[in-house]
Amino acid sequence: RDDLAAYCLMLADDALVASQRLSEWSTNAPELEEEVALANIALDLLGQARVLLSRAGHLGAAERFRTTTMAPALSDEDVLAYFRDDRFFRSVTLAEMDLGDFARTMAWIVVYSSWRLALMTGLRGLSDPVLAAVAAKAVPELAYQREYAAGWVVRLGDGTEYSHERMQAGFDAVWPFTEELFLAHPVETRLVEAGVAVDPTSLRASLDADLAQLLPVATLSRPERPAVGLVGGRGGRDGVHTEALGRMLAIMQSLARAHPDATW
Amino acid sequence: RDDLAAYCLMLADDALVASQRLSEWSTNAPELEEEVALANIALDLLGQARVLLSRAGHLGAAERFRTTTMAPALSDEDVLAYFRDDRFFRSVTLAEMDLGDFARTMAWIVVYSSWRLALMTGLRGLSDPVLAAVAAKAVPELAYQREYAAGWVVRLGDGTEYSHERMQAGFDAVWPFTEELFLAHPVETRLVEAGVAVDPTSLRASLDADLAQLLPVATLSRPERPAVGLVGGRGGRDGVHTEALGRMLAIMQSLARAHPDATW
Amino acid sequence: MDHDDQLLADFDATVAAEGRIEPRDWMPEGYRKTLIRQIAQHAHSEIIGMQPEGNWILRAPSLRRKAILLAKVQDEAGHGLYLYSATETLGVDRTELTEKLIDSRQKYSSIFNYPTLTFADIGVIGWLVDGAAICNQVPLCRSSYGPYARAMVRICKEESFHQRQGFELLMTLMAGTDAQREMVQDAVNRWWWPSLMMFGPADGDSPNTQQSMAWRIKRHTNDELRQRYVDMSMPQAEALGVTFPDPELRWNAERGSYDYGEIDWDEFTAVVKGAGPCNAQRLAHRRAAHENGQWVRDAASAYAAKQATREEVAA
Amino acid sequence: MDHDDQLLADFDATVAAEGRIEPRDWMPEGYRKTLIRQIAQHAHSEIIGMQPEGNWILRAPSLRRKAILLAKVQDEAGHGLYLYSATETLGVDRTELTEKLIDSRQKYSSIFNYPTLTFADIGVIGWLVDGAAICNQVPLCRSSYGPYARAMVRICKEESFHQRQGFELLMTLMAGTDAQREMVQDAVNRWWWPSLMMFGPADGDSPNTQQSMAWRIKRHTNDELRQRYVDMSMPQAEALGVTFPDPELRWNAERGSYDYGEIDWDEFTAVVKGAGPCNAQRLAHRRAAHENGQWVRDAASAYAAKQATREEVAA
Question: What SUPFAM superfamilies is this protein classified in (chains C, D) (predicted)?
Answer without folding.
Answer: Ferritin-like (SSF47240)
